[in-house]
Amino acid sequence: MPAPSADHAPANSAEHATGALAAAVRVVSGLTLLSRFAGLARDVITARIFGDSLLGSAFRAAYALPNLFRRLFGEGALSAAFIPQYALLRRDDPDRAQLLANAIVALLTLTTSALTGLIMLGLLVRLWLFPITEDAAISVKLILLMIPMMPAVCIAAILAGVLQTQNKFAIPAAAPILLNLFQIAAGVLYFLAVIESKTSAAYVIGLAALLASWATVAWSLHALKGQVAWHRLSWRELRDPASATGESVRKVLSRFLPVVLGLGTLQLNTMLDTVIAMWPVWIGPTMFGRPTPLDESSNAIISYTQTLYQFPLGVFGIAVATAIFPLLSSTSDRTTEFAEHLRRGLRLSFFIALPATVGLILVRHDLIAAVFGGGSKTFTNEGLARAAAVLMGFAPGVWAYSLNHVMTRAYYAKGDTKTPMRVAIACVLINLTLNLTLIWRFKEAGLAWATATSATVQVLSLILLAPRLLGVRPITQDTLLAFAKIAVAAGCMAGAVLALQHFAPRLIAAMNLTQTLSPDRWLTWTLRLAGCVLVGAGTYAVAAVLLRLPELRWLTQRAPRGGSGGSGVSGMSFD
Predict the structure, then answer these.
(1) Which of these, 419, 453, 479, 143, lies nearest to 281 by C-alpha position?
(2) Of residues 54, 49, 34, the one with CA closest to residue 208
(3) Buried (b) or exposed (e) across 469-505, using 16+ Cβ within 10 A?
(4) What is the mean predicted confidence (pLDDT) over 257-266?
(5) Strand partners of residue 291
(6) Cβ neighbour number for residue 507 with a 10 Å cutoff
(7) 537: Cα within 13 Å, side-chain hemisphere
(8) Which pLDDT score, from 0 to 100, does residue 55 have?
(9) Is the pLDDT of residue 563 over 50?
């Protein structure tokens, strides 16, 4: 009897693992959805306070550095270096796994606290000893306030990795809700006139974010109570070359920097966008001897717009990658099962991300206007148009951002951290080159196009290198056929949305609602956006059923409670 191919792993094992994966994806994406809605509410509130103004740019820039660490560590990079080693030890040597968790948390606390202190000292020296404009001073003070978030988000990331490896996905996925709720409460104080000035509101909201980050650490520690025994770190044991714990720690640390570069490309590119967008405030009105094409509103516009394309990425793209990573790590020595998990992860990501890509392009004007244009005109009309142009640049890369997370974790699960790092460095250079080229023609939208282009180059490179370096083909004929069907379903969705957008004005006129639903009113933008979302989602779901796309079934498949799946995920429970 011929052995099963890599494309057709044993049915029971594959279906069993798929059910566990789907359950994890539903838990992570469901709670992350709540978190992202809370995050969207937070951004709407802060945007209504600061708008597309210089203060808005300064606040978003100050938030960018701790936010960079949150995304790098809280959404994968540090955990990606830690989870494979911890997962294997937990399977084979649970006591040693606990020692590894203790050591990494202790080292991380010391390192990030020292780094935070150095950054704060440098900023204080800059503020006290060197000339600085009032606008730049506000930005520096806000950074000083929020940079102590860095140790907290790093510690929370490792604790999240421990929880995920124990098949507890709910708590780390829900933890960011605390961050959002704290900031929402602080923002509401401004509208209740408890806080008088917008500048004071920026400091209060920043303080709320700091407190919430440490509250997340406390919550995660409480969730691990009774699961992990925390004790004092033995430095002598870590330095001992014969120490098994020291060897495990060294393996994690040796992978850390490559993982940061490999998995954090999007976040590093986002940080580059922030630095370039803040050029008029931090550096001056000229760039390379020419008047800069950007202005004091550029960072507010691009930063707030980023939250919209990152919404589907954070809810679904990272959810799939987070859920599949323990599966890839635990089957890294079983080629057939590893390949099956990887392909299903890519197909699930593409199934979710491609319609998100198409949808954001189609509804960008209504989405921007509905979120940032109502009531007190959070953004100016010019700001709304510029934000829509930025979203048009980011949106084509959503599918690439999502697949990148899965592909990068596949390399890490196999112990290869250098390849994603090398590809990432090249893509960061591509992004920087395109940034400095495209801004002269497209202004801040050029930064968005550069990010989407570099993300696409990154994922294609990782896929093409995989057969030689991972020993598996991520994309087979079956995978390509599935991608083609998904594209057809997305095309049907696009046709339905375009038809609605074309006929909606005629329908409004026929119903004598022209005055009520005039083109420049918030209610019109919101209703049109809601209609497009409902029609688009419904059409895509129907098309998926008619095309018999199994990805829809995979997302709704329940995790088996027993059995002997070959992937080692039998009986998984996702709290």
Answers:
(1) 143
(2) 49
(3) ebebbbbeeebeebbebbeebbebbbebbeebbeebe
(4) 66
(5) 286
(6) 12
(7) 5
(8) 84
(9) no
Q: What is the pLDDT of residue 266?
A: 65
- The C-alpha atoms of residue 25 and residue 402 are separated, in whole angstroms, by 13
Residues 6 or more apart whose CB falls under 8 angstroms from that of 94 comprise: none
Rounded CA-CA distance 274/62 in Å is 10
Average pLDDT over residues 453-466: 95
CA atoms within 13 A on the CB side of 153: 24
Q: Which amino acid is at 207?
A: L
- 55-106, pLDDT tens digit by residue? 888 888 887 777 777 666 645 556 667 777 787 788 788 888 888 888 888 8
Domain coordinates in residue numbering, the chain: 46-253
Assess contact for 379 and 47: CB atoms under 8 A: yes
How far from the centroid of its chain's Cα atoms is residue 18's Cα? 23
Is 220 within 8 Å of 74 (Cβ atoms)?
no
Amino acid, single-letter form, for residue 456: T
Q: How far apart are CA 475 and CA 489, in angstroms?
A: 19
Encode pLDDT of 330-376 as tens digits: 888 888 889 998 999 999 999 999 999 999 999 999 999 988 886 55
CA–chain centroid gap for 142, Å, is 23
Residue 519, pLDDT > 80, answer no
Residue 155 has pLDDT above 70, yes or no: yes
Provide the pLDDT for residue 455: 92
The span from the CA of 29 to the CA of 356, in Å, is 14
Does residue 411 contact residue 417 with C-beta atoms inside 8 Å?
Answer: yes
Contact 378, 510 (CB under 8 A): no
Bigger pLDDT: 19 vs 300: 300
Give 177-221 as a DSSP string.
Answer: HHHHHHHHHHHHHHHTTSS-SHHHHHHHHHHHHHHHHHHHHHHHH
- pTM assigned to the model: 0.76
The 3-state DSSP class for residue 67 equals helix
Closest C-alpha among 482, 497, 484 to residue 539: 497
**282 in Cβ contact with 139 (< 8 Å):** yes
**Cα–Cα dist 83/165, whole Å:** 7
Q: How far apart are CA 516 and CA 508, in angstroms?
A: 9
Q: Which amino acid is at 211?
A: L
Give the distance from CA 53 to its chain's centroid: 26
Helix/strand/coil (H/E/C) assignment for every residue in 10-33: CHHHHHHHHHHHHHHHHHHHHHHH
Q: Is the pLDDT of residue 541 over 80?
A: yes
Q: Work out the pLDDT band at 460, boundaries 50, 70, 90.
A: very high
Hey, how many other C-beta atoms are within 10 angstroms of the C-beta on 287?
Answer: 17
- Residue that wins the pLDDT comparison between 531 and 150: 531
Nearest-CA neighbor of 428 among 259, 255, 272?
A: 272
CA separation for the pair 270, 425 (Å, rounded): 14
| Other CB atoms within 10 A of residue 360 CB | 20
